[in-house]
Write a structure and sequence with these properties.
Layout lengths: L1 H6 L4 E6 L5 E9 L3 E6 L7 H12 L4 E6 L4 H9 L7 H11 L48 H13 L3 E7 L3 E3 L6 H18 L3 E2 L8 H9 L3 E6 L11 H8 L2 H11 L8
Parallel strand pairs: 3-4, 3-5, 5-8, 6-7
Antiparallel strand pairs: 1-2, 2-4, 6-8
Helix pairs in contact: 2-8, 6-9
């Protein structure tokens, strides 16, 4: 990831640092309206989605612009892919081994504080069906909304950019989530845009009952913008490189086409 960031010739920035001090990178593509934020890798074991986002950066945008954040949970991704050896501090190693209940971190979702970042946002925080209140490989909401440096960095960066939409890549299932208690008119707008994204990926639309506290949820609630969670790939966690061709086949060109279609039909997507 650091080599990719260093080699990138366009506008780029470090939006924040993780629990262990690793950078969270953002790379800018395109120009003009609409402005999007595309992020992946919030769940550690879903690191394969970072490669999708990097390929989307290489492809670029024809119309519109976006900030791409390939890996918003760098500590967790290293932990899931490389194991406890990726953590050097002894006290942190002991804490993580205790939270995980063993040395196999391949299915780990959380950050290096054992907080699930995608339930750490202030959008009905702590009310999720599967939320837990203790450090764990998944679903721990943290001691408070935005308790984690990674979720705070993404919140602050999003507020500074003020995008027209966001897309969050997760694995897996081949489906798109878009709904979070929007009022009627905004719901019509958001579903229309979700349907466009669905047509470009081939993924059906879904509604996640009992899922709250995520980045998508916060964007819908706090910024009142359309926001989408796209679940890519099929198989069993963690998806490896064997799944990448299928993921790229469905998703590589989707952001480029989505942004261009929105830009071309700007008057057809009113904001309420």
């Amino acid at each position: 990831m650091e080599k990719f960031y260093a080699a990138y010739r366009g506008e780029k920035t470090i939006v924040g640092r993780s629990v262990l001090g690793n950078p969270v990178f953002a790379l800018h593509c395109g120009h003009g309206y609409p402005v999007g934020i595309i992020q992946a890798g919030m769940h550690a074991r879903e690191w394969i989605a970072a490669y999708l986002v990097m390929e989307q950066v290489r492809l670029g945008l024809r119309r519109g612009s976006a900030w791409f954040l390939p890996l918003t949970n760098p500590d967790g991704a290293l932990l899931s892919a490389c194991g406890i050896g990726s953590v050097t501090e002894e006290a942190r190693r002991k804490f993580l081994l205790g939270a995980n209940g063993g040395e196999d971190f391949s299915r780990w979702k959380a950050n290096a504080a054992a907080v699930d970042l995608n339930v750490n946002f202030d959008a009905r925080w702590g009310e999720g069906l599967y939320n837990v209140r203790f450090p764990a490989p998944a679903n721990y909401v943290g001691p408070a909304p935005f308790s984690e440096p990674e979720s705070r960095a993404l919140r602050d960066f999003t507020l500074s950019v003020r995008p027209q939409y966001t897309i969050s890549y997760h694995t897996m299932g081949g489906e798109i989530y878009w709904h979070f208690r929007q009022p009627f008119l905004r719901g019509l707008r958001d579903k229309r845009l979700a349907s466009l994204l669905s047509s470009l990926t081939g993924y059906p639309l879904k509604e996640a009952a009992g899922s709250v506290g995520g980045y998508k949820d916060w964007c819908v609630r706090a910024l009142k913008i359309p926001a989408f969670t796209v679940e890519v790939g099929e198989g069993e966690h963690p998806l490896g490189f064997a799944a990448l061709d299928g993921i790229l086949g469905h998703n590589l060109c989707s952001v480029r086409a989505f942004s261009a279609r929105w830009s071309e039909r700007r008057g057809c997507f009113p904001f309420f």
